[in-house]
């Protein structure tokens, strides 16, 4: 199977362009990467992946400016439409590490990207491909962060952008970003999955170039999250993490991290046994991937009704499941669901270490806590939790999880009296 960790490096097909091509993960059909607009396989409609004639090892990433493009040896180009994305912190969290009782815990905070989420890593590559293809309008469906990133990178690239959002279900910070960066915003009377159905149809009709994670080039950029985590752990612990815990919506990151690790294994830079266990976390009200993992199913059942406070992962039809399920299984990982209350508690836990994240991001820490409680994660494990978006993305959720402001008169004595009263 082409998605197994031990798969051999494929032969270079005639339609490769400078050692890069697209391959269907289902039937193996290959395509030239930049000649035509294509998101899925012409033959069987399967998902596509970028393939490379040469796969890099860690040495190939040395000596260049930090960020996504430091990893250009693992990407289809040497540079993209960039706003200096990537190179995000891998925070130590000593109190949380103690509390959760693992050997080591680090937080990879993707909220520290230019638009405040990991989506920037995919867009710097995806928008570059759009320019290469010479397409007109860029479009995406979004629970918010993709739309903010698309708007920013589209405007950086001088391109028109269109975003479809589920009405009333997108956090305020994200809409504000898409709006100021100049996207045309359509609020759809339906959930994210319905928005994506429409954008896919618009893209199929040639109305727009689709930049959701169904687009294989977005995931190439997102591989760099995994590469940065591995390099960070190697520098600090002389070993890669045993496990990476991450929130799951469309399962793009799960797929991208798995691809990054697979390529390192194929390049001989990472032992198969050392690949971190990919561990996905979903909100209880939107957990189709967890259901599939628990049932040992090959396909994910689409959930029509989804609900969670973590609106970024309010998704019932994870389109990258055919790439992500093998990723979770082949690495010995798992998937788990958490309640909205557990998510908010984890948001407070992270805030207590000075790390501000939006609710979906906190799902990773909530999931780790649950898996420690259940004994699935051992106390000897070194773990990285991915936090995907910044606190300010969803100011309403942050304010609701935090303390209320206390009104006082504009008078020092009254302020002192108020402080004493409260003690
Ligand atoms: N965390 C955040 C903050 C997100 O915005 C998303 C996805 C995810 C996690 C899930 O990542 O899809 O790779 O499994 N947000 C998309 C959006 C759907 O439109 O912004 P995934």
Automatic annotation (TrEMBL):
GO BP field: isoleucine biosynthetic process; L-serine catabolic process; L-threonine catabolic process; threonine biosynthetic process
Gene3D superfamilies attached to this UniProt entry: 3.40.50.1100
Superkingdom of origin: Archaea
Catalytic activity: O-phospho-L-homoserine + H2O = L-threonine + phosphate
Record-annotated Tryptophan synthase beta chain-like PALP domain positions: 82-389
PANTHER family reported for this sequence: L-THREONINE DEHYDRATASE CATABOLIC TDCB, THREONINE DEHYDRATASE, MITOCHONDRIAL-RELATED
Protein family membership: Belongs to the threonine synthase family.
Protein name: Threonine synthase
Taxonomic classification: Archaea, Methanobacteriati, Methanobacteriota, Stenosarchaea group, Halobacteria
